Every structure is written in structure tokens, then in C-alpha cells.
Amino acid sequence: MELLEYQAKELFRMVGIPILPSQTIKDSRKIKELQIPYPVVLKSQVRSGGRGKAGGVRFVANTIDAIAAARTIFNLSILGEYPEVILAEAHYNTEREFFLAIVLDYNLQCPVLLGSAFGGMNVDSLLTNLQQVVVDEEFSLFYARRLAAHMGLSGKLICSVSEIIAKMYRLFRDKDLDLIEINPLGVNNKGELMALDGKITLNDDALARQPVLEALSFTKQQKQLNDRILTGKILERVRWRWLDWHSRAGKVAIICNSFDSALLTWDLFKQNRVTPAGAVLLETDFSEPDILESYRDNLLDVLTQLETVKGLKTILINVWDTQAIGREIVETVSSYCQQGTSSILASKEESVSTKVRANEPDLVNKQKSSDSTTIARPRFVLRLLADEHPEALPMSETIYLFDGLEAAVQKAIAIVKSN
Fold it and tell me: What are residue 318's DSSP bridge partners?
């Protein structure tokens, strides 16, 4: 389950990560009761990235402007999601912004610390300067200091940023998190740190054993999802989400099964001066055969979304998972190319178009032409762990299979640069 920003910051507060004075608003009329001095920033509380560009983040200087902005935000759909809550937060002047994250890498089976001395909305600078430290033994402050040093920090900043990382790790470990992220971590002219935005993903299997989560103010949608998970009505063994990296001019999309592999794949493209259109994480917690149908449904859901990305020439799927997952990807992509999503989805009880999506990038245009009957599909480059030779798999002239990432990236680049 993904927490909203105000919920993530409540957990930050519990472990001493500095956050700004804030107040949640569920009705625009309650803005009059705001106890935070102006100017303030009003933030739409939705799971999607790109809130600022979509108009979901607004700076206001007085009550009249705040009421008008709150009404606009409550009625603003960001990638299909309306906010139930707005976060009103004090304004903070920064001189520098950092990126910090801890992610559970299922391939390495251990946590990974991530950090960049360039945080905020400039994704290219963030990724170019991204550093990582694998926590392969019991965590100590040594790991945090190593990451801070790799980020190029010096003096008091090494100590202060290391302390923030240590608190993040404590939260990550104690609350059974899959992901914790601060972007940006602001630094003012006095060298003081402030978590200006936060993202937390809880492990669904741990919800029942985390009573502290009951203290969080969940939205109606979150409560419904939580109830279904805890009562066993659904098993979220497969899930997908957009990463907050995208380019409207990109002609290649990336699908990966871990945050680390997505970063590596993106970086290989950038080294070759190719900026991808976007990246998707398609993650699994288990590898039993009973998840394959769900995996197929989620992959088709992703491909359906990618159909709306204009100018897309190729999709690189970099999923180094089980052989069963590899076969399922090949068969799904092959059927998708041969039949199209409409015929594949016809036999499904629930259309993927009605599912709730975790994240969609700003570049996706949901308005499809009503008179369009065919879709020019991109070519596929698959980097998988397969138990058969490529010749024995159901291939077509639009599908290429590799077991090496660099070769797969080079093939995708060749397709992008052709014609």
C-alpha cells in the first residue's frame, strides 16, 4: 500500500525526521481555520507523481486565495484520481535540494540506500548523480556516511544527512516498508534540513502486524483496499506503478521489475544520448504459478497505457525474474502483437481499463481518437531469464529476445534511431 504525503510525514515525525508545520484540509471551507501563517503551499494528496505540473500544488498568500485554490484542487483530477485531502504546509526557502531513498531490492534480497546531491523535479540531474550503497550486513551509521560521501557532501552535511538516512532506515526496518523516499530534502542558508516531500510504500503482508498504522488517517479508498488485503479477498502479489521520470519527446519505454534495474536501464540509455519516454515497475512478491494470470493482467494493463504514448517506437522489458515469469512475458507480448489488446481482453471478466492505476505519467494522453480502429504498435526488446533458446519461443519480427542488458539497450536504440 502506498501512503500519501501527509501520512508519510506523520511517520517521519515519529522518528524525528524534520518536517514543516502542516494541516490537513478535507473541506475548502475549513481553510478559514488554518493555523499556519501565510504564505503556505497547498498540495493535492493523490498517489500520482507530477502534481505540480498538473496544477495540484499551489502557493497562496492569504485566505481568499487559499479558498479559491483549495476548491480548484479538490475538483482537479490528476491522472484519474481526485483528492480526498489537501495538505496545507508552511513555505520553506531552500538553497540546495537532495534526494534520499531506501528500497527493498528483491533480486539482491537486501535493502539499498540511494542518494543524489541533486533532488527535486530535475530528474536528469538526479539520475546522473545518483549513488547507491547496498546494506549487505547489519545496518550501522557507516553505511549512511558512505552514501553521504559518495553524494559529494562534506563537513557538517555528512553528519546531518547521515542522521536522516539512519532515521529513514529505522522506519524502513521497524514498519516493514518496501520503499521510503524523501525528495526533496531541502537545505536552507543555515544548513538546516527539512523533508519537503515524502513517499512510503508499505509491504501488504505486514499490514496486519503494524498496529501503529491504525493511528494514520486513511482515506476511504485506502481503507477499502486495506480491508480487502487483510480479509484475503485480494492478494496484491503483482503490482505496477509509473516512476516519476518521463519525457514527452522519448521514443522508448522501459518496464522493469525493480527500482535498481530501472535506474541502470535508464542510465544506459542516457549514456547513449537517448532519453526514454517513461519507466514502469512491474513487481512481484512471490513466484508461485498462481500469480501468472495476475502477472499477465498487469502486463496487459501497462501495455494498454503505453498505447497512448505518442511517437513510441519500442518497449524494452528488462525483467530478470523466474523462468516462468519470462515465459509468461514472452507469451503475453507475442499474443499482444498478434491479436491486439482488445481481443486479448475480451475474455476477461473485468476490463483492465476499469482498474485503479497506481501512477500514470503526465505524458500519457487518455483522449484516444474515436475514429481510430488500429494502433501502430511499437517493437519489443525483451531482456529475460528464459529456459529455452530464443528460436524456440513464440517470436515475431517485432519481438527481440536478449539475455544481456547492454545488448538489449543497443537494439532498442537502433530501433529508435531507424527511419
Answer: 256, 383
Contact between 72 and 55 (Cβ < 8 Å): yes
- Please determine, looking at this structure, whether the domain spanning 238-417 carries the CATH number 3.40.50.261: yes
What is the C-alpha separation between 55 and 417, in angstroms, rounded?
34
Contact, 313 vs 415, CB < 8 A?
yes
Question: Tens digits of per-residue pLDDT, 148-194?
Answer: 999 999 999 999 999 999 999 999 998 889 899 999 999 999 999 99
Is domain 21-90 in CATH 3.30.2350.10, yes or no? no
Fold category of 1-19+93-236 in CATH: D-amino Acid Aminotransferase; Chain A, domain 1 (3.30.470)
Q: Which tens digit of pLDDT belongs to each residue from 2-22?
A: 889 999 999 999 999 999 999
Strand order in the sheet with 40-44: 22-25, 86-90, 40-44, 57-60
Q: What is the pTM of this model?
A: 0.61
- Find the DSSP H helices in 205-356: 220-230, 259-271, 292-306, 323-339, 341-345
